[in-house]
Amino acid sequence: MTDPFQIPYEYYQNGDLIIGEMTSQLGYVTDQLYFHELSEIKFADQLLAISKKYQHVLSFVFAVKEINENPKILPNISLGFYIYDSYTNARMTYQNTLKLLSTTKRIVPNFKCDKKNKLIAVIGGLDSDISLYMATLLGIYKFPQIANCVLAPMMSAESQLTSFYRMVPNEVYQYKGIVHFLLHFQWTWVGMIASDNENGDRFMQTMMPMLSQHGICTAFYEKTPAIPQTTENLGSLGFFRAKSFSMTISKVKVLVVCAEPQTMTALIWMLYFFSLLEGTTETSMGKVWIMTAHWDFSLETMHKGFDMQVFDGTVSFAIHSKEVLGFTKFLQILHPNSAKGDGFINIFWEQIFNCLFSGSAKQNQRTDSCTGEEKLESLPGVLFEMSMTGQSYSIYNAVQAIAYALHKIYLFRLKYGAMDDRGTLNLSDLPPWQLHPFLRGISFNNSVGETVSFDEKGDLAAEFDIINWVTFPNQSFLQVKIGRMDPQVSLGEEFTIHDEAITWHSKFNQTPLALCNDRCHRGYSRKKKEGKPFCCYDCVPCPDGMIANQKDMDDCIKCLEDRFPNKGQNQCIPKILNFLSFSEPLGLTLAFLALSFSVITALVLGVFTKHQNTPIVKANNRDLTYALLISLLLCFLCSLLFMGQPHTVTCYLRQTVFGIIFSVAVSCILAKTITVVLAFMATKPGSRMKKWVGKRQTTSILLGCSFIQISICTVWICTAPPFPDFDMHSLAKEIVVQCNEGSATLFCCALGYLGFLAIVSFIVAFLARKLPDSFNEAKFITFSMLVFCSVWLSFVPSYLSTKGKYMVAVEIFSILASSAGLLGCIFFPKCYIIIQRPDLNSKEQLIRRYY
């Protein structure tokens, strides 16, 4: 009976031990099947061969050839192989997997008819579906299967695949690499494309949360339609979705594609149909394509007319590979007639060189005849590459891994003398399941010196390369390695990228931006747009006192206490120190006034000393007059302590010296006023007040009143003295350098006591202003104390309402104004008489003038 599933495309080579391979060379398109017909596959006019994948077969054959020619591995044991095609179809995959298990052209399940050619392991499964189809059968018999699918089979089934290995790193590292790549260029607005199947759903479900966790938004996720496998529906694949698809992907500049073959086929068809509908070229799209490691930039025969420059500048992750010595030479000597048993080479040759061999089923087509002398190196890279691709390298390493595992078993048996009846070492009786422990623990250096081993999940412990694809108008391309994603290195160093090596699509003059909207400049923060993804935002200025010193900041930040925002609110600049300096105009003016009044006071003192024996000087106690003038001189000078940057010593002296000196001055005035009152009372007949008139009484008042203030200041200095302080908050752009009073209570006590003395002096002088005495200066004292009290009463609200150096300036002005008031009101009239009217400066004239 004829096998209804018989397909002629296979490759066979005898050997003591057989390694099977399930490749994916050919696709097929069938006519529509009907139930009333015989359930036999009907092939359309031609099979659709994927020419570039023929290298997978050749790398497998080359690896077996290397092992057989190496006397150090499996001596006296030859490896053979069976290679079948899965046709990327479940039915054909199951059929040909059963053929591998039967090792004959007839499928006889559960029977081994040929004892010479023993199948020991199977390599294959270019995609996860085909791998799973194979594993469901191979797992029953515990045959080791090493797949090279980038996506592992679905997790629900993975736990049951105890005989399954992958010569590919875990895809999670690839996804992490994509996220790292997007973050490196700060791309946060990307589109995603995958197939409308379980693998596409799995890709989306894995990637989208990872992107969101790292602040990357998915503008859309597009699912490409499934590829029809009937001739009636093939032509309608792209037209009904091409326009809407192109409008969707026009929203973004960066597209992340799960580049499975069916996804790329559908994607290319839709781009091609769009160019036909719009009358444009695909190149005008100008996108950054980020492809997964499925992609090898192969264009099927049906796409030879496609403008491949649409993928110029594409970045793809790729299974790490290295050039294997001898492989290029192996390809160069390849000839259709030299490959015995190869059922794939003729259809590959016809397709790749667009020619026909004699006896071909397509002889009626007007095509050149194949000579067999055509050279593979003359082909463009999109059709065939002379260097080993990543997937071919995985197949090569898979053969090596099986061979090294068998060699370890060989050495184990040799060590323990496991010979057959003829005294020779033979592995033909080796059950496939015994290979697993040796295969799981395998670790060896392949022919190019790279270590090959599996991790705990049965995946290859290796890295992903990051490749930049540069295309040219002549359909050639250049692969440039621009980085890697290596999970084997330490954390933080697993991802590397070389920006300078990247070539972007020719439409971009610089590194593209992938953002939902323009970035927020420095000085602005992001504000989420309602109803939009979190990557879409408005830019709002930072509030007063805050800055944004980077682009796209989520929140503005406050400056440190010693800094403040600049005008653009994009950086913090140091605050300047705020204190009343001698060099600035205000400080210079106040210092000049203080020194001027000090000189005037010294001159007045000089005048009074020179005319000390005159009646006007001797009146009302000459010693008190001198004490008052000296204290006023010191009052003017003590105002200089409030200028300049405060230090510990100046803070100690400022308020205490001011308080003590002013209390002495006011005490002198109080003593003068009391002296006037007592002198008037003592002139009355029979008065007993004469004993209170004299120097002892005035000295007691002066010392007693001053002592109280000295005591308050002493307690203040000993318990909670003033100290230099920095006020960071009162002024936005300046640091106020000031003297902290230490104890506010004692500070208030000192000022309060000074005010108390001033009020008492004012009241006594006011009451004595009309006493009939020519030497009575109570009127002048009354007016001077009125000025004094007015100045200090206005000082309090002014002092509390100002900040920084102006607060100090208010206090200095109050000191100068009140001291000048005392000096002018009390001594100006006397100086006028002494200097301008000396004729009045006599006792007789003053008495006569009074009467």
Model description:
With 851 residues, this protein is α/β, with parallel strands linked by helices. The chain folds into four domains: 10-169 and 323-366 and 385-453, Rossmann fold, CATH 3.40.50.2300; 171-319 and 463-501, Rossmann fold (3-Layer(aba) Sandwich), CATH 3.40.50; 524-574; 585-850, Rhodopsin 7-helix transmembrane proteins (Rhopdopsin 7-helix transmembrane proteins, Up-down Bundle), CATH 1.20.1070.10. The strands form nine sheets. The protein has an eight-stranded mixed β-sheet, sandwiched between helices. β11, α9 and β12 form a beta-alpha-beta unit. α16 packs antiparallel against α21. The longest helix has 35 residues, at 648-682. It is rod-shaped and about 160 Å long. The protein starts with 9 loop residues before the first strand and ends with a helix. Residues 1-6, 33-46 and 229-235 have low confidence and may be disordered.
